[in-house]
Amino acid sequence: DIQMTQSPSSLSASVGDRVTITCRASQNISSHLNWYQQKPGKAPDLLIYAASILQGGVPSRFSGSGSGTDFTLTISTLQPEDFATYYCQQSYSTPRTFGQGTKVEIK
Amino acid sequence: QVQVVQSGPEVKKPGASMKVSCKASGYTFTGYYMHWVRQAPGQGLEWVGRINPNSGATNYAQKFQGRVTMTTDTSISTAHMELSRLRSDDTAVYYCAREVDRTAARLLDYWGQGTLVTVSS
Q: pLDDT digits over B21-53, tens only?
């Protein structure tokens, strides 16, 4: 199975900050990497797929990069509605594995 | 518009079985894999498995092999996930989610609202 490791597990940031979350795969997954945002009590929402393609309707302050084993999710200017937990997921093979999540909290 | 609506919450005793349903609408049900993901209280997302509604073929995470069964009823565009021999650590919100292939990418674009299954004596 492919292991996905996110860092950090949590972070505190202020509105307007630039935030970066990293995700590392245990083997080469090319660009088969998705990012999801989850708010408390809600199902996850797709943010980015294929490592860098923004899902329709997602604000342009979100961006993704990387290929192979190392990936990054960046929020350029943190907004109040961005405080949530973010998960990466590989779609290279089954089982589809998720990172452990990164909780973005208000500083 | 695409919708995925799940069945309601359940309370089960240890050792029992549970079956969660997921009704899809607004798209061709047989054209997309349906995945199941669970989330224990305060924990992260855990992939359980997937089913191809067109063929019935399934893939399950190793830890659930032998306890999980995924099926579909294409006549009513509904997917089911059954988990047997329940334990307290199976207490979780169970989600179904549609997987779409888009320019050689595979992603979960529509999710159900989640079904809380509580296992308690």
A: 999 999 999 999 999 999 999 999 999 999 999
Per-residue buried b or exposed e for A86-95, using 16+ beta carbons within 10 Å of the residue's own CB: bbbbbbbebb
Which of B61, B105, B111 is the closest to A50 by Cβ? B105
Per the CB < 8 A criterion, the answer to whether B10 and B115 are in contact is yes
Among the partner-chain residues B45, B50, B103, the one whose CB lies closest to the CB of A44 is B45
CA distances from A60 to A42, A54, A74, B26, B36 (A): 22, 8, 10, 28, 29
How many contacts (CB atoms, under 8 Å) link A and B? Answer: 66
pLDDT in tens, B90-105: 999 999 999 998 877 8
B58 close contact with A: CB closer than 8 A: no
Q: Which residues sit opposite B46 in a β-bridge?
A: B38
**B 26-45 → A contacts, CB under 8 A:** 35, 37, 44-45
Residues in CB range of A83: below 8 A, 6 or more apart: A104, A105, A106
Beta-carbon count within 10 A of A6 CB:
20
